[in-house]
Specification:
It is a single chain. The chain is of the alpha/beta class. It folds into four domains: about 90 residues, GMP Synthetase, Chain A, domain 3, CATH 3.30.300.230; about 70 residues, 2-Layer Sandwich (GMP Synthetase, Chain A, domain 3), CATH 3.30.300.20; about 270 residues, Metallo-beta-lactamase, Chain A, CATH 3.60.15.10; about 190 residues, 3-Layer(aba) Sandwich (Rossmann fold). The protein is built from 21 helices and 28 strands. The strands form six sheets. It has a seven-stranded mixed sheet with strand order 12-11-10-9-8-7-28. It has a seven-stranded mixed sheet with strand order 13-14-15-16-17-26-27. A six-stranded parallel sheet has the order 20-19-21-18-22-25, sandwiched between helices. Helix 11 packs antiparallel against helix 12, helix 11 runs antiparallel to helix 15 and helix 17 runs parallel beside helix 18. The longest helix has 20 residues.
């Protein structure tokens, strides 16, 4: 199809004449509107036939003129939805004939096989969309939902514009077919992940992060001659850690107004982490890279996808997101380029192994010619203990420290390791494996835990079953308490009761974890446990390596101030590798063995130089695949 009229005309030609009065795009989705009440009831087979033929998402909605007024619709919906569903709020989007229902128990709003939703649609002519009311209140979730609601009219125009880009045809002129990727960051390093995909028609960025441990080389090479933000068609975000998302608001600061594709929890956590980055930079006397307004623009332009949902993003690129097993909402990106020309799988960060939080990374794809895989723990020596051994070690260390009257400090990445540790320790308390003590969370851990409780469908089967079937949400445990102020933080450090403290940042490069370290490090009864990757140059890596005297300026967390405070680390320091959200060497090799179909080419990124080279060599020897170990600014032509 050369333009949107072609595909719209073709679809309408398959439907009864005069039944459709308006059409719109919502991204790659095609929305049809009708004023015919009878046709709404009878249209299922017609729409299914069109979907099967065109292989696009086509939805029929009532024209807004059919919808009841909000007061009447509200009364009808409250008659239909049972009280035990905990219906909290109704948000009406009249131009799109949509009503959003926020409820504590979405399943009771949906009804058996969608019966209640169908009744709502038939009686009010609004299309109902159900969202989970967060069981833990979170300002960030409220803010994001408010932005999307307030900006609904803008979003409607934006999504229609995206649809035109997809369906209006080639704007750069088709000459020949090729696929190339520039590695703008994250090649032979951990940090500032950024890949730039080019085809004759498309310009797509895969991740755009920062390296929080390296002030000198913190940002991707967006000055590369092939990259021009004004020509960018789309950005795809694999997950919400700052080394993958931290520079995306910067793109919107400088005028990018195209779509950002990711999962819902990734959108929410990315917004939270980038806002926190702005706050931390200001507290350290640095000029923030961007403002909260730029982050708001990022949210406004995000198009969220579920795992397994196929969508076109440009005329010649179609993507599908799959579970990566790394953190909540983390994705492996499958890119189908051209009409069967080439298929690329980009893993982002992945965990191909069991965890208390998530299912292992997906290995089955429709087609794979090329694979781009991470290698954080890709070296031969990077063999982690089993999940059971790691859990046992954590419980043992905590028990020892508590029995000796000390406190346990666990520096955590806000998303992923914090929630994994909370689930493990909450279960251990429940089973009596450790004393019934308080677990305090500080920094952004609380809000990210709230996001976990809002999207249980993205969690592992066992944990999801606890939340849904058994109503045993570990994140709602009475053993977990939030620390919300400097005064509370100081009291927690000074008071004598043993406890567990989880605080950001996980690498001790700022945030409340550094304040707890200062307050607790000189007491030998206390213990600090590292459970996540410590970047090169970070304070966490230095302490891991044996440094026991640390210095800070009196006014901030960096050591460049004139007045220096020195602390001696007398607390016990331990590392538990098995709780990492990354695959170790054995899991990475197992992933290559299990991926189906087998890729012909493999590019290895997101790892220290020696680990990447080691993994590339091993993959080539074991599986006879062509391997690449690109450097930053290298370009690989995949087709």
């Amino acid at each position: 199809m050369k333009n949107e009229n072609d595909i719209i005309k073709a679809i309408l030609s398959r439907l009864p004449s005069g039944k459709i009065n308006d059409t719109k795009f919502e991204g790659a989705n095609i929305i049809l509107y009708t004023r015919d009440k009878e046709y709404l009831k009878e249209s299922y087979s017609d729409i299914k036939r069109v979907v099967d033929e065109f292989k696009k998402r086509v939805e029929l909605r009532p024209d807004p003129s059919l919808c009841f007024d909000e007061e009447t619709a509200t009364r009808i919906i409250k008659e239909i939805v049972p009280e035990e569903a905990g219906l909290k709020e109704l948000l009406f989007d009249l131009p799109r004939s949509i009503v959003i229902l926020e409820a504590e128990k979405p399943g009771l709003v949906i009804g058996k096989q969608g019966s209640l939703l169908n009744e709502i649609k038939q009686r009010t002519f609004f299309v109902p969309i159900v969202r989970r009311e967060p069981p833990i209140k979170s300002k960030i979730i409220e803010s994001i939902r408010n932005v999307l609601f307030v900006e609904s009219e803008y979003r409607k125009k934006f999504l229609d514009r995206v649809g035109h880009r997809i369906y209006d045809g080639w704007i750069r002129g088709r000459k020949n077919e090729w696929v190339r990727i520039s590695f703008l960051g994250g090649a032979r390093q951990v940090g500032r992940s950024c890949l730039f995909l080019q085809t004759p028609e498309s310009r797509i960025l895969l991740d755009c992060g920062i390296d929080v441990t390296n002030d000198a080389n913190a940002y991707p090479h967006l000055e590369a001659p092939e990259f021009n933000a004004n020509e960018l068609d789309a950005v795809i975000l694999t997950h919400s850690h700052l080394d993958h998302c931290g520079l995306i608001p910067y793109l919107y600061k400088f005028g990018y107004r195209g779509p950002l594709y990711c999962t819902e929890p990734t959108r929410d956590v990315a917004a939270l982490l980038t806002l926190d980055l702005v706050k931390i930079m200001r507290s350290e006397g640095k000029e923030p890279l961007y403002t909260s307004d730029n982050i708001k623009e990022m949210v406004k332009h995000t198009i969220t996808l579920d795992y397994g949902e196929v969508t076109d993003i440009t005329p010649d690129v179609r993507i599908t997101l799959y579970n990566a097993g790394h953190i909540l909402g983390s994705s492996i990106v499958h890119l189908h380029v051209g009409n069967g020309l080439h298929n690329i799988v980009y893993t982002g960060d992945l965990k191909f192994g069991p965890s208390s939080l998530l299912e292992p990374a997906e290995t089955k794809f429709p087609r794979v010619e090329s694979l781009i895989i991470e290698s954080t723990y890709g070296g031969r020596e990077n063999i982690m203990p089993s999940m059971k051994d790691a859990n046992d070690s954590l419980i043992s260390f905590v028990k020892q420290t508590i029995e000796e009257g000390g406190k346990v400090l666990i520096p955590v990445l806000g998303s992923g390791r914090a929630q994994e540790v909370l689930v493990i320790l909450e279960d251990a308390i429940k089973k009596g494996l450790i004393p019934d003590i308080m677990m305090y969370v500080d920094g952004i851990v609380w809000d990210i835990t709230a996001i976990h409780s809002t999207y249980p469908d993205f969690l592992g089967r066992s944990l999801k079953n606890k939340i849904f079937s058994l109503d045993e949400n570990p994140f709602l445990s009475k053993s977990i308490k939030r620390i919300g102020s400097n005064k509370e933080r100081r009291q927690l450090i000074d008071e004598g009761e043993p406890c567990i403290i989880l605080a950001t940042s996980g690498m001790l490069v700022g945030g409340p974890s550094v304040e707890y370290l200062k307050g607790l490090c000189e007491n030998s009864k206390n213990m600090m446990i590292f459970v996540s990757y410590q970047g090169e140059g970070s304070l966490g890596r230095r302490i891991q390596a044996g440094e026991r005297e640390i210095r800070f300026s009196a006014n901030s967390n960096n050591i460049n101030g004139n007045t220096v405070e020195t602390y001696e680390i007398k607390m016990r320091v331990e590392t538990i590798d098995g709780l990492s959200g990354h695959s170790d060497r054995r899991q990475l090799m197992s992933y290559l063995k299990n991926i189906k179909p087998k890729p012909q080419k493999v590019a290895i990124v997101h790892g220290e130089n020696s680990r990447i080279l080691d993994l590339a060599s091993s993959i080539h020897k074991a599986y006879r695949m062509e391997t690449f170990a690109p450097r930053n600014l290298d370009v690989i032509r995949f087709k």
